[in-house]
Amino acid sequence: MNTDVILPPHANGWSRRLVAAVLAALLGWSGAVFALPPHKLSVQYELSRNGTVMVELTETLTHDGKSYQIDSDARGKGLFALSNRGTVKRASRGTVEAGGIRPLEFRDQRGDRQAEFARFDWAKHQVVEERDGKSEATPIKGAMHDRLSFLWSFAFTPPAGAEIALEVADGRGVSRFRYAITGPEKLKTPAGEFDVMKLAKQREPGDERGTEVWLAVRHHFVPVRVLVVEKDGTRIDQLATRMASE
Questions:
Q1: Is residue 2 part of a domain?
Q2: What is the total count of domains within the chain?
């Protein structure tokens, strides 16, 4: 059996050694083979605002080794279930490449409002975003994902190095993010206890919104918790409650 850690081509030198050491420590092996995730992988979450559960969210990844689709279905609970505004459906589709996944289209449908799109044209190195009947093209200068493909991309390519820098398009604009990789940690959730790697957003000047992401190492690095802390201290916590695969 090959016991080398399979890392993305951009990870080299000390960053490769760091990731290999962390993975080996978390998995309890002298090395680990990084395999593609199951053809269908689904995670259910509860989203809470300052401790009060507001939304039930299900995200499902399906792929055949060549293409992928990620579907996200969020529905409000309690008072939030009484309005269409409490329903959000998002989807990302694209290709599975040797270095990970590459999005082609992101769709964001909020309640009964008109859907918003981000369409990635890799041949022209641009992303075209559509909203309210208008479109705008933005050059793709480096690594770019959409809101769904970013968090699920680690199921195909584990996080590497000390920091991840990328741009994210969501139909409303393109934002640039930097995340520091920390850990390892243990995390208890309603879905179970996980060995996790943690990503912490590095704030740029003027950015008063904090974001942290916990990835389950033994479960294809899927996100099992996402915590957003707003400028006023409001905490939006997305926590896994159930995980299933086929």
A1: no
A2: 1
Does residue 78 surpass a pLDDT of 90?
no
Is residue 237 assigned to a domain? yes
pTM: 0.84
Question: For residue 193, what pLDDT is reported?
Answer: 97
* Domain assignment of residue 99, given as a range: 37-245
Amino acid identity, residue 176? Answer: R
Q: Is residue 173 in a domain?
A: yes
Q: pLDDT digits over 33-46, tens only?
A: 468 999 999 999 99
